[in-house]
Amino acid sequence: MIDAGVLGFKCFMCNSGIDEFPPVNEKQITIAMQEIAKKEHPVVYMFHAEADSVLNNARQTTPLASFKFYSSFLATRPQSAEDQAIQTVVALCNSTGVRSHIVHLSSASSLDTVKMARESGVRISAETTYHYLYFCSEDIPDGNTLFKCCPPIRSKSNRDALWEAVKEGTITQVCSDHSPCTIDLKKVEEGDFDKAWGGIASLQLGLPCVWTRAREHGVSISHLSRVMSEQTAKLVSIDDKKGTIEVGKHADFVVWNPEAKFVVDPEFLFMKNKISPYNGEELYGQVKATYVRGNLIFDAEKGGFTSDEPQGVWVRPSHLEK
User: At what angle do helices 111-119 and 79-96 cross, to 10 degrees?
Assistant: First the structure.
């Protein structure tokens, strides 16, 4: 797969909730890393980092009848689950030298582990997501399962610590973890966080929602460009074509007004299932146009996308084109 052009692999260290995507244990991770280490091509091994044993113990102490309370759901996904799993990844990454990446990190108490590992030369990186930087647990209403995701949205102080990590570079990417679903899977009427689909749909709103909170934390537009574009392209080895506006690269860019405010209206969303905890939120930063490889693909003044046909192409890193 690597020789054919696969640039990365993702695994779950806990139950994913999907039978076709079972978790891996430390032995399996080690075997995979040993195989990846044999290859010359740059590959990243990515981890949903929550320790299964910690989650199982936490769940056993949470009454099932209490899952309409967000605090109860939060108690079943403690920060210690992330912290332990990330420590395991760092240790294995250090021993094998395989480039590793923590996807959707939500626990601020793991940041020192990542920072110290990076400073000591371990090839580890970490991202966080739009919703961890925008929402906080104190503002989530009980029974509102639109906010369910795993790992969960945590406290305001935790959110503030994530922003500090974005500013100083411990968190190197900010990504969507876009996970839409049909309304029935969210169990909105039941309000049961245990049964509801875990995932938040936000891809379309990435720039406005992150920019809205970035303004509050003193983070510049240019820094957002680095963590939302430049460093994401570097992670998967396509930064020779993507990630920045430079001569010779694909002309991918957005035209937007960072001072314009708007309220998220479900009818404004282009995704099929228009359910999102961002509905009704007032955000800064209105997108006016989007260009991909120099082609105008979205024009707000003309009502949206300029074509019904897909505009994407397969982007391969240069080492695979030789």
Answer: 10
Judge whether 98 and 45 are in contact, CB under 8 Å. Answer: yes
Residue-level pLDDT at 322: 64
Q: For residue 267, give Cα distances in angstroms to 271, 279, 281, 297, 307.
A: 10, 10, 14, 20, 19
Nearest in space to 288 (alpha carbons), one of 220, 209, 207, 221: 207
Question: What's the residue count for the chain?
Answer: 322
136 sits in the region (left: phi over 0; alpha: psi -120 to 50; else beta) called beta
- Do the Cβ atoms of 228 and 210 come closer than 8 Å? yes
Q: How far is CA 145 from the centre of its chain?
A: 19
At position 177, the amino acid (one-letter code) is D
pTM of the model: 0.96
Contact criterion met (CB below 8 Å) for 171 and 128 = yes
- The Cα 69–Cα 88 span in angstroms is 31
Does the CA dihedral 149-188-267-208 come out positive or negative?
A: negative
Q: Identify residue 310 by its one-letter amino acid code.
A: P
Query: DSSP 3-state assignment of 262?
Result: strand
Give 255-265 pLDDT, tens digit per residue: 999 999 999 99
